[in-house]
Design goal:
alpha/beta, seven-stranded mixed β-sheet, 8 helices
């Protein structure tokens, strides 16, 4: 079988156009448990890069380190060439569990990050309405989270991250709680947003198929302690329809090659 993708070992200086640089990052949790070890990785500006690997390899840990939510045991992270020492406005996080404000309606949830920054009401609601339209929730602006489906709630979480105009969007398995039909629609919507917004997306998933379908690049992490195992660049034509892409030999061969790399580590 031929794998129609490029693989390589990544180095900290591999890409001049990196929006995020991870340099020698290691993480140890109490126990001790070594979650990450000497991770060197770059995330290209304007692209979607997926972190993929077996359970427990440190994907979400690395995402939270980039977000500034936790500090690594060693190493550094640079965002737009500046060291990360905590959360910052140039990064936005889309949580797996949505993390919406239950007492706030859709428009206020989407505008909440702007509200925290002191943006005037009219201005922040105009921005919120723009992204509510982009994620397909026009007409639901005054609904509350409990009145929305799971898929709608995740759309609100994504719109909130987009509304703050962050350079880097960090998405932690955002589609894991939704059904397969909705998930495919979300995948198509996300590709459209990546093309429109031209921001840097860092995406975590357990799904090989999702990673190959969505990604410009895939960073395949090794079993714990997580290291960069391979860099994979799927080669599919985005001019094809979604159904055509999923039947395309390059897509199928890449999915199979990644599975062959990972299957011995599935618990």
């Amino acid at each position: 079988m031929t794998m129609q993708a490029t693989t390589q070992n990544e180095t900290p200086t591999a890409t001049a156009a990196a929006a995020v640089s991870v340099r020698g990052v290691s993480m140890v949790y109490p126990g001790p448990v070594q979650a990450l070890q000497d991770v060197d990785l770059e995330f290209q500006a304007g692209k979607l890069t997926t972190l993929l690997g077996p359970s427990g390899c440190g994907k979400t840990t690395l995402l939270k380190i980039i977000a500034g939510l936790i500090r690594p045991a060693s190493g550094t992270v640079l965002v737009n060439s500046r060291p990360v020492d905590g959360p910052g406005p140039e990064r936005a996080f889309v949580f797996q569990d949505f993390a919406l404000l239950p007492w706030a309606n859709v428009i206020r949830n989407v505008a909440f990050g702007l509200e925290l920054r002191g943006v005037p009401t009219a201005e922040r609601e105009a921005v919120a309405e723009q992204y509510i339209a982009e994620i397909g929730l026009v007409g639901f602006e005054r609904k509350y989270p409990h009145e929305l489906s799971i898929g709608m709630r995740q759309r609100v979480g994504l719109a909130r991250a987009l509304a703050v105009k962050a350079d880097v969007l960090l998405l932690d398995e955002p589609f894991s709680a939704i059904d397969e039909q909705t998930r495919r629609k979300f995948q198509e919507d996300l590709l459209r947003l990546v093309a429109m917004e031209r921001r840097t997306f860092v995406f975590v998933t357990h799904s090989i198929e999702e990673a190959v379908y969505l990604s410009d690049r895939i960073a395949l992490l090794s079993p714990r302690p997580g290291r960069v195992w391979k860099i994979i660049e799927p080669r599919m034509s985005r001019t094809l329809s979604p159904d055509q892409i999923r039947r395309e030999p390059g897509y199928l061969d890449t999915v199979e090659a990644i599975w062959q790399s990972l299957k011995d580590y599935v618990e």
